[in-house]
Amino acid sequence: MEIVAFLCNWCSYAGADLAGTSRFKYPANIKVIRVPCSSRVNPTFILKALANGADGVMVSGCHPGDCHYTTGNYFTRRRLLLMKRLLEFTGVNPDRVHLYWISASEGTKFAEAVKEVVEKVGKLEKNPMSSIEGEIRYEKK
Amino acid sequence: MTTMNSNNLSINIPPLILKKEYFQGFLEAIKDKYELYIPSEEDGVTLIREYSSGDKLSENYFNVSLPIRNLFFPQEEILFKFSLKENYNLEEKEMLSRERVIFGVRPCDILSLSLLDLVFESEKKDSYYLNKRDKSIIIGLGCVAPQESCFCTSFGVEPGKVIGADISLTDLGENYLVEILSLKGESLVNYCSSIFSKAEERDFLRGKNIQSKTRELMPSRLESEAKPLNLEKYFESPEWQKLAETCLGCGICTYLCPTCHCFDISDKRWLEEGQRFRCWDSCMFSDFTLMTSGHNPRINKKERVRQRFMHKLSYFYNRFSEIACVGCGRCLKYCPVDIDITRVIGVFKDEGK
Amino acid sequence: MKKNSLSPIIKELLKNGTVNYFLAYGKGSFWFKVRPLIIREPVELKNLEWNRFCYPNLTTYLKDSSRSQDKIGVVVKGCDVKSVVELIKGNQIDRENLFLLQVPCDGTVDPGKVENLVWISKLKVTGFEETGNGLEFITKEGRVSVNKEEVFFSKCYKCDFAPSPLVDRYLDEERLEKNQPSIDNPDLYEELRIIEEMNPEKRSIYWEKQFSRCIRCFACRNVCPVCYCPTCVFDQKDTSWISKGVKPEENNIFHLTRALHVATLCTGCGECERVCPMKLPLMELNLKLIKEVDELYHYKAGVDLQSISPLKEYGKDDYDEFK
Predict the structure, then answer these.
(1) How close C152 gets to chain A, by Cα (Å)?
(2) Do B273 and A136 touch (CB under 8 A)?
(3) Quick check: C120 and B60 CB within 8 A?
(4) Which subunits sit against A, judged by 3+ Cβ pairs under 8 A?
(5) Residue C184: is its pLDDT beyond 70?
(6) Confidence of residue C183 (pLDDT cuts 50, 70, 90)
């Protein structure tokens, strides 16, 4: 199982760092992509990740009100809410896409969030959006 | 044309009758031995789809929305797969080995295949296309009710009569009149010969009558046979701008055209493996002629619309002595803004070659 | 529906220089089609047409016209005005350079629905005439009457037309007042319910089947009046969000992205669905987003020039289902 995680540079990426330096355990299924702000995550990134074989996508940013750019994550919140509703409407399980608010000091929350995402995505069947043929997908590791 | 018609020298089977009550059985019989494709309707769209038991020929079948070329020159076709591991493996695409039967192809689309043959066979032989052509048995079905967008008679097509296929079917109401046009057709008929009965003289005559009658039902979009046009002379004509100014630049006319054959080749890569594929491309897209340098010789819609019509009516004729249009009417029917090839032919019609 | 009264007005506007050219409907190749007509000279008015089949939304030709100084006149129906609102908000056209001439419309006819009623019986239709309550199709074997309301585009049943202050001139003020929505309190999201009630697997199969038909002709994108990016994200050469080939799995990247990009801009004109040669139910995606935006942020596109798209602003106390 592979989860693509888009983490905002200022909070969530630092939170992930803290989880690492504090030696909190979390599943190794996530592949982190650092973005300047959670609002940098274009819905197309998420669709592309799913089409390229990711089983789930996690987006994480600063808590609302704490954005490094003051308001970025408010936009993320609206955008991803609409996107999740649309995905659900087209038959994609909403548990494939997750959004969390994780600050730089929340190493434990980050570890917990990853565990939760992995657990939820683990329950789902094979990603129907994946355009990668089975053999290529699993051999590439 | 040569692939299809070189072998129809000695056909000895007289015309046959296929009763419509046996039609489904006929499809089932073919399916046992061949891959079978028939026009079927789903969600209001009629397309040629692979037959699975119980599928019905779509009712009031006029023609398929996507042209038949999709079965010979698919919208996307993987040419080979590659791997960077070990010995840099190349895995070539498997060619068709099993014969397939394509049922219900209309006369205009059959003509379009002979035009595509010119492209894919004349200078360089395209093995992907020719393999599919070689392994296909085409059962043509003559039209009985041409639509308003039809103008195939302007290109020498007899809408009721199937020419250039392997087997010709004519709808007699309760029966089909079956005529065998090639050795491939003969082998198919021999394979399930018990389904057919011999056609009486009067059935045959009735069939011939129906075949020629369809022409009378044709709307007259173009007054006469389409002649190749000397469009080069009109390269700078202001008419092109007028034609193009409402064009949306979508790919409907090219993708739905049975004779359009432009393609692009591209790779899709994963970490250590990938595939090379070719796919349809459209001269109506602005990036069709975009060069690596950033220069685009056909920057405006005017140039692109002109290119499409020039190619169809003039350039193709210069190379192959045929006009690249069969009058199927798809571009007329589906163009969202009603850009009409018959109008173009009309505008320049006095300028014959 | 009179085209005769339209012609002198356009002629006058061209003559007195109010507009440089006029976007209108012209005679099409078939009785069920009209052709967008760009009128620069009064002589071109001879091709002018106004009938039940004037369904195209001409405002799509206004995209990116703020760069030219041309003054443009447009023949609009009530629903087209909404697209104009979004085009002005999107800085695609300057209000000062626009002249809106609204024609009274109480529904446009969907040729697809006529085909189901009339064509399929293999009658050759050569034309049509408007009668009191219906349309009469002229065939070689006589006339076939059809109740008008059976053959309207589905958007026409939900028409919520209200006179707009943007419109410069109404063709026929009297008829405009009688111009009422076809159904009282229409169920705006009727089509969605069937899909929303499916279980997720069925929905997934449904959409997979629909998307798999897409041939990527991009007509839905190009015809859309509010799809006005100078370079579409799918036309960018240095990134490849979707490959050039047609893989069904990638078709949903295209269609979902397109729907999300026009979310809060889509006025529901239905052009994307109308032009689709493969009959993809694209309006279902758009309608779903219109519905969600309305429920979450109480916003509808195309209503007025002042309100701001909810995706361009934010609320601190927005609904938050994320942890």
Answers:
(1) 27
(2) yes
(3) yes
(4) B, C
(5) no
(6) low
Query: Which stretches of chain B drop beneath a pLDDT of 50?
Result: 1-8, 353
ipTM of this complex: 0.91
Residue type, C160: D
Q: B267: which chain A residues are within 8 Å (Cβ-Cβ)?
A: none
Interface probe, candidates C232, C252, C291, C317, chain A, greatest A C-beta count within 10 A: C252
d(CA C39, CA C163): 26
pLDDT tens digits, one per residue of B277-323: 999 999 999 889 999 898 999 999 999 999 999 999 989 999 999 99
Q: Chain-wide mean pLDDT for chain C?
A: 88
Q: Is the CB of A141 inside 8 Å of chain B's CB atoms? A: no
Q: How far is CA C310 from the centre of its chain?
A: 22
Amino acid found at B281:
D
- Using a CB-CB cut-off of 8 Å, the residues of chain C touching B338 are 28-29, 33-36
* Cβ pair B133, B3 in contact under 8 A: yes
Q: How do residues C42-55 score in pLDDT, each as one tens digit?
A: 999 999 999 889 99
Using a CB–CB cutoff of 8 Å, tell me whether B267 touches chain A: no
Q: How far apart are the first and last CA of chain C?
A: 56
Q: Edge-to-edge strands of the sheet including A56-61?
A: A30-35, A3-8, A56-61, A97-101
